[in-house]
Design goal:
Blueprint: E1 5-9, H1 13-27, E2 34-38, H2 82-86, H3 96-109, H4 112-116, E3 117-118, E4 121-129, E5 134-141, E6 151-157, E7 159-162, E8 169-170, E9 184-187, E10 201-205, H5 209-220, E11 225-230, E12 244-248, E13 250-253, E14 259-262, E15 267-269, E16 272-275, E17 279-280, E18 303-304, E19 308-309, E20 315-317, H6 327-341, H7 350-370, H8 373-385, H9 394-413, H10 447-452
Parallel strand pairs: 1-2, 1-7, 2-3, 7-20, 9-16, 10-11, 10-16, 11-12
Antiparallel strand pairs: 4-5, 5-6, 8-17, 13-14, 14-15, 18-19
Helix pairs in contact: 1-6, 6-8, 8-9
The protein binds flavin-adenine dinucleotide (FAD), NADP nicotinamide-adenine-dinucleotide phosphate and magnesium ion.
The site of flavin-adenine dinucleotide has 31 residues, from helix 1 and strand 4.
EC number: 1.-.-.-
Organism: Riccia fluitans
Pfam family, one: FMO-like
Length: about 450
């Protein structure tokens, strides 16, 4: 019998997790389907790759000097610890470059890219035939030809997994007078270097982790003042330094092109505005009937077990949730999706799937009311790992959840110093060393610098 073919779109952390899940089944002697992972970038690692310029097509959303905002121990690979990768324990809050190296390290160890990934190949469209039950994936391969041309080709697959992330298409709301703003106006997606804001008055719109982290960065790099304007809730930070203030939402920008008026009647003259207004789930290559439609939430509706598209339960989406757990959750999802594809797990009826999702949907509501999405996501990860041989264990989930509550406490102690606290690895048991240089004094985000200073 011919091997089934599985198309995976995206070789970021979630796509790589699926490749590793299949490869681990193979290690244990199982026959796995043929996997083809299409990745439009030259390298794997998704958003953790840094685009120097925003001039290039579809640059990434991470900016210079980005450090992780939760301890690395929460999202450590069980089958590839940080200590294994770096040869020694390292600090708990490394910069982006260190995380990218680690993600690639696991991919290299298990030869995921060389075996399964077609790099520099962008998926342009997907169609599904009800009669043959096959997907046709049409891609442009830029690897062998010059970038503008590429080679267009199509292949057929039995299964489709979308792992393209959801923090790449900016959500750009409008505000009265914003277009006539005379200072610099950009979305966080286009921010490269906060050092540009040294000595400037900066306005951040939004109160998610982008707003919080960019406020910290602006402070670190010497902005004169930072004003955060929020729609629903302020960031929740209780200890901003003097120069950071939070105010209700921007109402309009004065025709003078400088003065911003807020809903509480206050105003502020600013030099720069950064829209920290989040991102859109965007799947332009998918046919409408197979497209996931959701906002950035902890329980996107329409996905059974958070991954199976209820509208067409032959399509899988990975990593579409708002994330406290990232790599750990992607592994839990990947092992589950693998087992559904391999027929080791069967799906219930559509009605049962929907009822199950509704239950999680109402639990999401309760979690939001209690302002505790971490426990919700921990419970979700536990449900998935209970169904497969994913190496993440419930004890580890409990330990990392405890790290989450310590993390909250550290942030209350000091928003500019929380990244200096070390955590103990739930994988190796080693306590991270205290990093020599406090975060506020780290001005070199390279891997070499982090591993030596
Ligand atoms: P992505 O990383 O977005 O990878 C998706 C991949 O799909 C990319 O490689 C992309 O090139 C590819 N792709 C997309 N469309 C196509 C196509 N049509 N054809 C072929 N390939 C395609 N998480 C943390 O755990 N800790 C953090 O500190 C943290 N910081 C973050 C900071 C920022 C500014 C942002 C935006 C996110 C941050 N995240 C963080 C979350 C981050 O999104 C996840 O860690 C992780 O990168 C998600 O992995 P993914 O594979 O699902 O998506
Ligand atoms: P997000 O969590 O979706 O937050 C979006 C914010 O924009 C919310 O505060 C939302 O307000 C607001 N918003 C949306 N539409 C708006 C509108 N029309 N008017 C006013 N406000 C509006 O997105 P994010 O903050 O960009 O975070 C994305 C991901 O990146 C997260 O996973 C985060 O952890 C990660 N990240 C990490 C770091 C790091 O330090 N490592 C840095 C940046 C980002 P409401 O609450 O009212 O909806
Ligand atoms: Mg298990």
């Amino acid at each position: 019998m011919e091997k089934k073919r599985v198309a995976v779109i995206g070789a970021g952390p979630s796509g790589l997790a699926l490749l590793r899940a299949f490869q681990s089944a193979e290690e244990k002697g199982a026959e796995i389907p043929e996997l083809v992972c299409f990745e439009k970038q030259l390298e794997c690692g998704g958003l953790w790759n840094f685009s120097e310029s925003t001039g290039v097509e579809e640059h990434g959303s991470m900016y210079k000097d980005l450090y992780i905002n939760g301890p690395k121990e929460v999202n450590e690979y069980v089958d590839y610890s940080f200590e294994e990768h770096f040869g020694k324990p390292i600090g708990s809050y490394p910069p982006r470059s260190v995380l990218l190296d680690y993600i690639k390290g696991r991919a290299n160890k298990f030869k995921l890219c060389e075996r399964f990934v077609r790099h520099h190949t962008k998926v342009k469209s997907v169609t599904y035939s009800e009669s043959t039950r096959k997907f046709t994936v049409t891609v442009r391969d830029y690897s062998a030809f010059d970038y503008t041309e590429g080679r267009l080709y199509s292949e057929e697959f039995d299964h489709l997994v979308v792992a393209t992330g959801h923090f790449s298409t900016p959500n750009v709301p409008e505000f009265q007078g914003l277009n006539s703003f005379k200072g610099s106006l950009l979305h966080a997606h286009d921010l490269r270097d906060v050092a540009d804001f040294k000595g400037k008055d900066v306005l951040l719109i939004g109160s998610g982790y982008s707003a919080e982290d960019i406020a910290c960065q602006c402070y670190k790099f010497g902005a004169k003042s930072i004003t955060i304007t929020y729609r629903s809730f302020p960031t929740g930070c209780s200890n901003w330094p003097e120069s950071i203030k939070e105010v209700p939402l921007l109402e309009r920008v004065d025709p003078n092109g400088r003065t911003c008026h807020f809903k509480d009647g206050s105003s502020k003259d600013v030099d720069a505005i950064v829209l920290c207004t989040g991102y859109l789930h965007d799947f332009p290559f998918m046919p409408e009937s197979l497209r996931l439609v959701t906002g950035n939430r902890i329980w996107p509706m329409g996905l059974y077990e958070g991954v199976v598209l209820e509208a067409e339960p032959i399509v899988f989406y990975l990593g579409m949730q708002a994330q406290f757990y990232s790599f750990t959750m992607f592994d839990a999802q990947a092992w589950y999706v693998r087992d559904v594809i391999m027929g080791r797990l069967s799906l219930p009826s559509i009605e049962e799937m929907k009822a199950h999702s509704e239950k999680w949907g109402s639990a999401e509501g309760e979690a939001l009311a209690k302002r505790d999405v971490k426990t919700f996501q921990a419970n979700y990860v536990k449900e998935l790992i209970g169904l497969t041989d994913c190496p993440v264990t419930p004890q580890m989930v409990d330990e990392t959840l405890q790290m989450g509550s310590d993390w909250d406490k550290h942030k209350e102690l000091g928003i500019m110093s929380y990244r200096d606290h070390p955590f103990r690895s739930a994988v190796t048991g080693s306590l991270a060393p205290e990093h020599q240089t406090p975060w506020i004094q780290q001005f070199d985000d390279s891997l070499e610098s982090y591993l030596t200073h």
